[in-house]
Every structure is written in C-alpha cells, then in structure tokens.
Amino acid sequence: MENISKENIVKDCKKIVIKIGSSTITSKDGTIDKDFMENLAYQVKTLMDEGKRVVLVSSGARIAGVSTIGKWSRKEDINYKQALCAIGQVELMDSYRKIFNNYDMHVAQILLTKEDFCSDNRTLNIRNTLFTLLDEGVVPIINENDTVCVEEIKIGDNDVLAARTAALWGADLLIILSDIEGIYDKDPSEKGAKLIEIVTDPEELEKSITIGEKSSFGTGGIATKIKAAKIVNKYGTHLIVAKGKEKDIVLKLGKGEAKATLFLAQN
Ligand code: ADP
Fold this sequence. Notes:
The protein is an alpha/beta fold. It is 45% helix and 15% strand. Strands 3-4-2-1-5-7-8-6 form an eight-stranded mixed β-sheet, sandwiched between helices. It starts with a helix and ends with a strand. The model has no long low-confidence stretch (mean pLDDT 91). The site of adenosine-5'-diphosphate has 22 residues, from helix 2 and helix 9.
C-alpha cells in the first residue's frame, strides 16, 4: 500500500524539482560522476517526454572546483571556499550542458541567494525566468550563488534551497537524491535501523528519530531534509528522499520499484 501511494504520487505529479546532493554527483575519486549525470539526463528526458516539467537543484560546485584546480581542498577559509565554488560551478555546468545536449536538452544556470526569496520583485523575476525556460523545454539548474554569500546569509544547504524553489514554483513534488534510501529511525550504520517509508508529520518525525553523522561529501545531513519537508509540505508539495546512485531511481520510484521516504503533504 505504501509503495502504491509513492508510485501514484510520482505518476500524477506534473511539476517536479529534483535535488542532487554532493555525495550523489561525486565519484569516489572526488570528480564529477559522469555516469550518474548521464543516467540523470536519461531520466529527465523520459519524464519530460511524459509531459512533466523538471527543475534541478544541484550541489557539487566546491568538489568540482577542488578536482579542477587540484589544490586548496583543505582550506577552510570562506574566501577560498567561495573561490573553489566559482571555479567548480563552470566545470559542473559544462558537464551538465554536454551530457544533457546528448539527449537533445538545453540547460540553464540560475544562481540564487537567500535574499532573493525575501523580495517580491526578485521572486517575481525568478518565477518569470523559470516559467519561460520550462515553457521552452529548457532544464533550469539551480545552485546557491556562493560568490555573494557569506556564511551568515547563506541559505545554508541546497535541501533548503530546493524546498524554497519548489514552493516558489508551486511544484507538486520535490525529490531529494541522497546517498541513502531515505530517513531511518536511527543512524543507519547502527544495527537494526529501520527505514521510515511514509511521514505525515515532519515535526513528529524529528522528535522520534536519532540523527547520526552525515557522509564525508554531504553538507546538510538528515536535519536539512526534514527542514525541507516542513517548508514544502506546508505548500501542498510532497517530498521524497531516495538514493541517487541507484540507476533509474526516479523512474523506479514511479513504478514502485525503489525504497524511499515519502513526506506526504496533507493539503
Ligand atoms: P547529501 O549529500 O545527499 O545531502 P548527507 O551526507 O548530507 O547527504 O546526509 C545523508 C547521510 O546522513 C547518510 O549517508 C547517513 O549516513 C546519515 N544519517 C545520519 N542519521 C541518519 C538517519 N536517521 N537516517 C538516514 N541517514 C542518516
């Protein structure tokens, strides 16, 4: 029954935001995982051919920056982090452009900050650009604009950026692709941890589970995924957390063939 509802939700949703976490976009050697990107392009194309509209929110600029310039990986200084993101963002989008072009899709880059969501004028502009790109069949790829953000004003994590984007666009569904099948009742490295398949109240979930360490490439961890659910569920948008590295994961979700956690919006 749980699988059936997940399956139907993906089938019925027309406007989907897919968030790709750092651990999903990166290979073990720290470079951009081109096989993953290739499979993502295939899945986005399939969804679009089914009449759905897709917006991507992609992490990975900093890691792409480290592998491109081959230094500064250990620098914790915020200016170096921003510099790495500026270098890596080009690399990241270059890979998206080439790979998505092979599937006859064009991509567009949108870089946003927290402040952009606080101004009516800016949200209107973002919405207009998004709608124009989507009407023309272009895939928008959103990331945080790290150059103009210092720690205090950062959205903080792309899970939250993806949630704000989904709310602003009026998406039906946000899919967060992580390095794990979903949310467990305790740290999944502990024995006996159980996957939670459906959540109807993110606040309650937060109180009832134990959150462990995030992965080495990860940024937000599970806490920001729950925060994202709280944001989007309020607007009637469902959220699914699933394992990004699993081949055809989004298509499998639509067939009820993959494990995941579904945060079901109540209205
Ligand atoms: P991403 O880069 O995809 O955002 P993160 O590394 O930030 O992913 O968060 C996912 C990681 O959080 C998982 O790899 C897992 O080891 C860890 N984790 C800790 N506690 C939990 C939990 N209760 N349920 C699921 N994952 C958890």
